[in-house]
Design brief:
The complex is a heterodimer of chains A (400) and B (309). By secondary structure, chain A is of the alpha/beta class. Helices cover 65% and strands 8% of the residues of chain A. In chain A, β6 and β7 (161-163) form a beta hairpin. In chain A, α6 packs antiparallel against α10 (293-319) and α9 (262-289) runs antiparallel to α10. The longest helix of chain A has 37 residues, at 166-202. The mean pLDDT of chain A is 80. Chain B has three domains: 1-78 and 155-168 and 182-227 and 288-309, P-loop containing nucleotide triphosphate hydrolases (Rossmann fold, 3-Layer(aba) Sandwich); 88-153, Ribonucleotide Reductase Protein R1, domain 1 (Orthogonal Bundle), CATH 1.10.40; 228-285, no CATH class. In chain B, α3 packs across α4 (109-122) and α3 packs parallel to α5. Classes of the chains: A alpha/beta (400), B alpha/beta (309). Chain A binds chain B through residues 3, 6-7, 10, 14, 17-18, 200, 203-214, 377, 381, 383, 399-400, and chain B through 51, 54-58, 73, 76-77, 79, 81, 83, 85-92, 100-101, 103-105, 145, 148-149.
Chain lengths: 400, 309
C-alpha cells in the first residue's frame, strides 16, 4: 500500500510542477477572468450620455434631468426626429429615443445611437420610463411594480424554510454544478492520465518500476495521483469562484443549512467518486494501448467525448426528465454521475435509479481495473507499438 | 540438484508469442558471487527470459526459483534490473529519481538518500544531482540508470548491455562496481554482445539462439572445448620442416600453427625443443575466443545482421 502512495505522491508532484498544470489551473481561469472583466470594467466606467426623447405615444412626462445610480441622465425633448438628428450632429446629445405611438400596446421604443448602449444606459432608460409614466408615484411603489415579491417557502410538514435569493439559487443549481464539475474533472483530469501513461511508456521508465511493484499497483498509484491533481485543480477553481462570488455580492456569502442540497452532495460522492475512478482507469488503459502521444490524445478525446455526452442531451432530457432515455443515461456508468445529478434539478429521481447506477459503476470499475492490469502487462513494454484487438483479447484471456 | 549458493534456478522455461517460440526449454542456474553471461544474437530470447525471471511476463511452462523459491513481492526488493531499453523520468531531477526508485525497492527515504550520495559520488554524478534527467548527457544517464538499478544493493542483479554508450573511463567505473557487487556476494546476470567483457568478467555463460540454449557452462571449459587444435609459438631462429601441420601463418611476430588431427601439441613441442635451428620463447595451445565460438555456434549469418543493425 505504501508503494501505491509513493507512486501517487510522485505522480502528483510531477504533474503539479509541470507547465501544463500551471497553465491549465491558473492561466485558463486568468484568461477567463480577464475576458469577463473587460465588459464589466467598461460598464463601471460608462457614463450616462445626454439623451433626446421623441414621445409619439404622449404617455410620458419628460424630465430634464433624471438621477440614476449616482449619475445624472440629461434628457432633452424633441418633437420630431429631424431636430433630434440635428442635435446629435451638433453634439448636444449622444443618442435619442423614439417612443412609438403604439407603446401602450407593446410597440418597441427605438434607441438611435452611434455605439452599442451600455448596460447602465439601458437600465437608466428603463427607470426613466417608469418614473416618467408615473411621475407622481413614490419610489418604493415603482420598485414594487418592478419586483412585487421575493417569497419564502416554508414546508407545512417539516417546517423548513427556503427564501428566494442567492441561497435558493445555490440550492437549485447545486446538482447541475456538481454534475458539470464531474464532467469537467473527467475532461481535465482523468483523460490526462492516458497521456501521462503513454509519456511514461515513451520514457522507458516503466520497465524499471514494474520490477518493483505489480502493474495493478502502478495503475492504482497513477490513478490516485492524477485524481488528487484533478481535485486540487477543482479546489483551486472552486476557491477562486467563491472569492469571485463573495466580491460580486459585496461581501462574504452568508451560508445557511437551507442552501445545502444534501441529497445532491451525497449522490455526487456516491456516483462521482467511483465514476471518476472508472474514467481514470479506462483512460490509463487507453494510454497504455496507444503507440504514441498523438494516438493517446485521440483516444483520450474519444473518452472525453463520452464524458461530455450528457451535456449534448441536456435539452432533450430537460423536456422529459423521467423518460426512458433519461433513465437509461442515468444507469449507464459513464454518463450516470453527470446525468443523475442534472436530473435532480429537473425532477425527483427515484433512489433505486441512483443506487443502481452507483452499483453498476462500482462493478464496471472493478472489472476495468482487472482488464486494464492485464492489458498493461502485455502492452507496457511494446515501445512505440499499438496493440491489436486480438492482442488485447489474448492479454485479457491469458495473462495471469 | 540446487547448490546452497544458488541465487536463481531456471528449469525448462518456455514462452511462445502467437506462433513464435521465443524461449524453448531453457534451463540454467546462477550462483551468488558470480557474474553469469547471458549471450545470444538479437531476438534470441534473452530479454524474454529476463522478463520471465523478473515476473514481468509469465512463462507458458517451466519453473523459476529466485533467491530460494518462487518470485514474490518481497523478493522484488532484493533484485536489481538494468534493462536494455533505458529510460528514467525526464522531468524529475536525478536525486529525486533515485529517491523514488530506491523507496520503491523498500529503502527509507533517508537510506535512499545516503546510498544515492555514496553511489553518485563514485560515478561522479553528485554535482549534477539536482539536474533534470533530460538535461544529463547520454553517458551520465547510463551511469544514473546503473545507480538506480543497484542503489538498494540487490542480491540478484540483471544487467542488459551495461556498458553500452559508455566511454572507456566510465566503462571501467561500471565494471569495477559490478566486480565489487560480485565480491560482496551478489549474483549478477550480464547480457551483452561485448565478448571481451564476458571473457574478462564472467565465470560461466549461457548462449541462446532461436529461444534454445545452445551452450552452457564454465567459460574456460567452453573455450577449451571449441579450441581450434592449434598452437601459437614464438621463437628465435629458423622454423624447421615440420610434419603434422595443416596450416601455418605468421602474426605479430608469432607463428600460428594449425595441427593435423593425428598431431598432438606435446609432439610438436618436443620436435621444436629438440630442433637445432630455433630456440622456443613461447608455446601456447590456442583456445577459441568467445567471439569465435559465438560466430561458430550461432552461425556466421547472425553477425552481418547485427552489425548492420
Amino acid at each position: 500500500m505504501s508503494k501505491i502512495w509513493l507512486i501517487a505522491r510522485t505522480t502528483f508532484w510531477r504533474q503539479v510542477r509541470s507547465g501544463t498544470f500551471l497553465l491549465l489551473t491558473f492561466g485558463l481561469p486568468a484568461i477567463m477572468v480577464v475576458a469577463g472583466a473587460i465588459p464589466i470594467l467598461r460598464e463601471t466606467r460608462a457614463t450616462l450620455p445626454a439623451i433626446g426623447i421623441i414621445d409619439r405615444s404622449d404617455l410620458t412626462d419628460p424630465q430634464e434631468t433624471f438621477a440614476y445610480d449616482g449619475q445624472s441622465l440629461s434628457v432633452e425633448e424633441f418633437t420630431d426626429q429631424e431636430s433630434a438628428e440635428e442635435a446629435y450632429r451638433t453634439d448636444r446629445i449622444q443618442a435619442y429615443l423614439v417612443i412609438p405611438e403604439g407603446y401602450a400596446r407593446g410597440e418597441r421604443p427605438v434607441l438611435y445611437s452611434s455605439e452599442t448602449p451600455s448596460e447602465t444606459l439601458r437600465d437608466a432608460l428603463e427607470a426613466y420610463l417608469r418614473q416618467s409614466i408615473y411621475p407622481d408615484q413614490p419610489g418604493w411603489m415603482l420598485e414594487r411594480f418592478d419586483n412585487p415579491a421575493e417569497f419564502t417557502y416554508t414546508s407545512l410538514e417539516s417546517g423548513a424554510s427556503v427564501s428566494e435569493g442567492p441561497g435558493v439559487l445555490i440550492r437549485v443549481v447545486t446538482p447541475v454544478v456538481l454534475g458539470l464539475l464531474f464532467a469537467l474533472s473527467v475532461f481535465t483530469g482523468a483523460n490526462q492520465l492516458g497521456t501521462v501513461i503513454v509519456r511514461e511508456k515513451d520514457q522507458r521508465a516503466m520497465e524499471m518500476v514494474i520490477t518493483s511493484i505489480k502493474p495493478t499497483m502502478l495503475v492504482a498509484g497513477k490513478v490516485l495521483g492524477m485524481t488528487t491533481v484533478s481535485m486540487a485543480q477543482l479546489g483551486i477553481w472552486s476557491l477562486g469562484a467563491l472569492i469571485g462570488l463573495s466580491l460580486a455580492f459585496s461581501g462574504p456569502l452568508t451560508f445557511s443549512p437551507s442552501m445545502i442540497h444534501a441529497e445532491a452532495v451525497l449522490w455526487a460522492v456516491l456516483l462521482g467518486v467511483p465514476g471518476y475512478f472508472l474514467y481514470a482507469t479506462l483512460a490509463s488503459g487507453l494510454g497504455i494501448l496507444a503507440g504514441d502521444q498523438q494516438h493517446a490524445r485521440q483516444l483520450a478525446g474519444m473518452l472525453g467525448f463520452v464524458g461530455m455526452t450528457p451535456l449534448y442531451f441536456t435539452g432533450i432530457i430537460a423536456g422529459a426528465p423521467d423518460s426512458a432515455l433519461a433513465i437509461a443515461v442515468t444507469l449507464f456508468p459513464l454518463t450516470a454521475p453527470t446525468f443523475g445529478l442534472i436530473r435532480m434539478t429537473l425532477t425527483t429521481v427515484p433512489v433505486w435509479q441512483l443506487a443502481t447506477a452507483a452499483g453498476i459503476i462500482v462493478v464496471c470499475l472493478l472489472a476495468s481495473v482487472w482488464v486494464v492490469a492485464r492489458v498493461f502487462r502485455a502492452a507496457m513494454l511494446m515501445y512505440g507499438q499499438r496493440l491489436s484487438i486480438s492482442e488485447v483479447w489474448n492479454a485479457v484471456r491469458l495473462s495471469g | 540438484m540446487l547448490q546452497n549458493n544458488t541465487a536463481l534456478h531456471v528449469q525448462d522455461l518456455s514462452k511462445t508469442y502467437a506462433t513464435v517460440k521465443a524461449v524453448d526449454g531453457v534451463s540454467f542456474e546462477v550462483r551468488h558471487g558470480e557474474i553469469f553471461g547471458m549471450l545470444g544474437p538479437n531476438g534470441a530470447g534473452k530479454t524474454s527470459t529476463i522478463r520471465m525471471i523478473l515476473d514481468i511476463i509469465k512463462p507458458d511452462s517451466g519453473q523459476i526459483e529466485v533467491l530460494g523459491g518462487p518470485m514474490n513481492e518481497d523478493k522484488k526488493a532484493r533484485i536489481g534490473y538494468l534493462p536494455e531499453e533505458r529510460g528514467l523520468y525526464e522531468d524529475m531531477t536525478l536525486l529525486d529519481t533515485l529517491l523514488f526508485l530506491g523507496q520503491l525497492k523498500g529503502l527509507s527515504r533517508a537510506e535512499a538518500h545516503s546510498r544515492a550520495e555514496k553511489y553518485l559520488r563514485i560515478v561522479d554524478l553528485w554535482d549534477v544531482r539536482e539536474r533534470k534527467i533530460d538535461a544529463l548527457s547520454r553517458g551520465m544517464t547510463q551511469k544514473a540508470q546503473f545507480v538506480a538499478a543497484t542503489l538498494h544493493e540487490p542480491e540478484l542483479i540483471i544487467v542488459d548491455e551495461p556498458f553500452s554508450g559508455l566511454d572507456p573511463i566510465n566503462t571501467r567505473i561500471i565494471k569495477s562496481l559490478l566486480i565489487q557487487l560480485r565480491e560482496s556476494g551478489s549474483a549478477i546476470i550480464m547480457s551483452t554482445h561485448q565478448m571481451n567483457r564476458v571473457e574478462e568478467m564472467c565465470s560461466r555463460i549461457m548462449l541462446i539462439d532461436h529461444g534454445r540454449q545452445v551452450l552452457y557452462g564454465l567459460v574456460e571449459d567452453i573455450r577449451t572445448r571449441y579450441a581450434p587444435h592449434a598452437i601459437e609459438v614464438e621463437f628465435e631462429g629458423e622454423l624447421p620442416d615440420l610434419t603434422g601441420i595443416a596450416q601455418s601463418e605468421q602474426q605479430n611476430g608469432a607463428y600460428r600453427l594449425l595441427l593435423n588431427e593425428g598431431t598432438s601439441p606435446e609432439q610438436l613441442l618436443k620436435t621444436l625443443v629438440n630442433s637445432d635451428t630455433l630456440q622456443v620463447k613461447r608455446f601456447e595451445e590456442l583456445r577459441a575466443s568467445l567471439e569465435e565460438i559465438f560466430v561458430q555456434v550461432v552461425g556466421a549469418e547472425a553477425y552481418p545482421q547485427e552489425e548492420s543493425a
